[in-house]
Design goal:
Elements: H1 3-28, E1 36-38, H2 39-46, H3 50-58, E2 65-67, E3 70-74, H4 75-85
Antiparallel strand pairs: 1-3, 2-3
């Protein structure tokens, strides 16, 4: 690599570190609220296997949204499910 390419690599590495740090700071911010959970996150929060939650989704007891390729459960749906599950 020549000197110009070395500087670009260092700049990209610095930028990546800065970006990761900023994303971590935002994620820890008390003002940022999650709008939805993944199936794995909700299963973990409830302490149930993913398959159990998938069954509830297939039966229509939990409504999901597809965002891109990812399946998400909106927080209001999490709250609704917890209320009816009691």
């Amino acid at each position: 690599m020549n000197e110009n390419q070395d500087n670009e690599v260092v700049d990209l590495a610095s930028f990546s570190k800065m970006l990761i740090g900023e994303l971590q700071r935002i994620a820890k911010s008390p003002t940022v609220q999650r709008l939805a959970l993944s199936v794995d996150e909700m299963a973990s929060a409830l302490g149930v296997p993913r398959r159990t939650l998938e069954g509830e989704i297939q039966k229509g007891r939990i409504k999901t949204r597809k965002i891109g390729r990812k399946l998400r459960i909106p927080m209001d749906e999490v709250q609704r499910y917890l209320e009816i599950a009691q």
